[in-house]
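@channel sequence for tomorrow's demo:
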Amino acid sequence: MSITLTDHDAATIRTAAYGAVALIAAADATGKPHKTATQGSLALYSATGPLGHVLAAKSKDIALQGKTVAELADHVLPALTDAMNLLTTQDPTEADNFRSTVLLAIDASRSHRSTPDPVVAAMADKITSALDAA
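structure tokens (generated this afternoon):
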């Protein structure tokens, strides 16, 4: 199956994926949020298939608004569910690729920590729930 994404669809996917990394970095505010964001972004950039092309595209359409974690989450968590819904409609395999890629990015974001952080873990759970809500 092939997928056909509008510019709006691609923007939703990029916002959801990079927004998930931004949420983890924001939750890691007392740790190393820059390193967290870098590791997660590199994982997203390594995606393959049609999703990989969408995530690797140089674009200014990633909309991550909010001055607080709550405001960012209000925007990103629904985008994750929307991205899963639109990909599931077109190609369930690509939806699975998106889900596993986002979860890989979240794991990569947390990989530099020597001890688990319950705040970061809670945000990862919220991201997973948003992905699974589709």
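heads up for whoever presents: The chain is about 75% helix and 0% strand.
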